Protein: Transketolase
Amino acid sequence: MFKQIETAELGKELRMVVVDTIKELMDENKRVIALDADLGSASGWTTLEGTNKERFFNMGIAEANMVGVAAGLSLTNYIPFIHTFGPFATRRVFDQMFISGGYAGNTINVYGSDPGFAAGPNGGTHTTWEDVALMRMVPNATICDAADEVQMEWIIRTFSHLQGVHYVRGNRKAVHKVYAPGSTFELGKGNLLQEGNDILLVAAGQLVYETLQLAKQLVQEGYSVAVIDMFTIKPLDKELLLAQSKDKKLIITIENHSINGGLGSAVAETLAENGYGIPLQRIGVNERFGQVGTPDFLQAEFGLTTDKIYEQVQPNLANLN
Structure:
């Protein structure tokens, strides 16, 4: 059961949430292994080496090999967690993830850090707007986008008990809090954060906070707005989506990802396949590559701040009146 607290206060850095959670898992279970692609200092994963020298490996800048090693460890009954930046955890290693992970039936738990605008000054080469689209193509893979520190910890712990390929994306740095400590969730189930009758907002990841701010603004203007945190993008919670879409005048998806192949596409496919002819607007990145800048600058540049999102939805809101 989750409890929403939603505050402008920043939480604990997500990279340290991941590290601290994996360290606890390593202490609890000797089969848990951590692999990092030479980003230990940036990710904090080198701290795992301190008390677990025999179960932490810096695999160097050789991400494909890291996935292969993780698959091998899975074959010998270990539970591997791997980390690198989002594009290198998915795009660069896609064949290994598909064949050695999904096709071979191995367990690989993946933390792809700094997706989308969070890549910041690392630039376009380190930016991924397509990681969710790629991982959706791995049969039976699970894909999560963590909204905050509480959800990230829960996701990492949950992954450790499951078999298969599991991918979670999330900023390395601190993000706004959405959930109270101790909140629990259910993989494959979205969280209905707000009920409403006119507009349905469906978001994932750190943009859930911005989506809640957008909802407040729209409510002040007289709209009745529902909000879903669809933190598990695959499998998508079709039951909740369809139930909340019924009788809505407009559905808007919001994601720190390309509008192609991500949350918006998954929602569009579900609505179309079930004959829901409701206007849908997908807010995300459209036919662009990443670029250099601070995360705050890039979030605005790619139209993903609350104000920029509001500007984009205005034309469709006008059609509701």
About this structure: The chain has a mean pLDDT of 96.
